[in-house]
Amino acid sequence: MRRRRFLCRAFLSRARSSAALGAGLIALVTATLVGPAGPASGEPPAVRAELRPAVRPALRPVLGRVVAGFRAPLTRYGRGHLGVDFAARPGAAVRAVEAGTVEFAGRVGTARHVVVRDARGRRVSYSFLASIRVRIGARVRRGEAIGTTGGTGPHHGGGVLHLGLRIGDTYVDPMRLFVDPVGTPFGVHLVPYGPIRRF
To answer: How many CB atoms lie within 10 A of CB 43?
Structure first.
């Protein structure tokens, strides 16, 4: 009986430690991928309102991992990275993250870009494309192919897709599109910590 009580106390202690570790891991990953849960520094209230989590997370435009994250410039014309770069082999299909209307499809300088305005008025840009499959004014479905990867541009080679997000004239971190309704980064899964022991 005494041994059973000792084992129960040990199990409960381990469960509390695992729960605390899991909560800490979620907070760390959320802060890393999508920024703080509270108001973002420098974002107008209207921008914060449009960044509230959607009913379902947006689709990833390509399957590759993020190789360069969003970096807001310290000043209006300062250096930064106004989007995220996903690794993508040249020729891969680029999918619309949400349904919307094509506002721009063409070249800026030597680089090809597509801009889609979604139902909430947010503009998502897909940059440095090798080809474009949509026209201005067209309605695109969520997941529809809008172009292919492999284009190049300033500071971007042919092995990435640059994804941008604008609300009004404000650029924000596009990774905030991939957040579920409770604010957890889409695709984050917790696994047991350490070996599972049976008592």
So the answer is: 17
State the chain's mean pLDDT as an integer: 75
Token couple for 60: 């990833």
Report phi then psi at 151, rounded to 5.
-80, 165
Per-residue tokens: 12? 């409960």
Q: How far apart are CA 165 and CA 152, in angstroms?
A: 19
Whether residue 14 has pLDDT greater than 60: no
Pick from 89, 36, 44, 35: nearest CA to 62: 89
Could you tell me how far CA 52 lies from the centroid of its own chain?
13
The domains found in the chain, sorted by start residue, are: 45-177 (2.70.70.10)
Give the Cβ contact number of residue 136 at 10 Å: 12
Phi, psi of 175 (to 5 degrees): -65, -15
Whole-model pTM: value is 0.65
Yes or no: say if 86 and 67 are a contact pair by the CB < 8 Å rule.
Answer: yes
Give per-residue pLDDT as tens, 108-131.
999 999 999 999 899 999 999 999
Do 110 and 91 form a contact (C-beta atoms < 8 A)? no
Structure tokens at 164: 């941008």
111 C-beta neighbours (distance < 10 Å), count: 16
pLDDT of residue 154: 83
> Which residue did the predictor score with more confidence, 34 or 175?
175
Strand (E) or helix (H) holding 111: strand 111-118
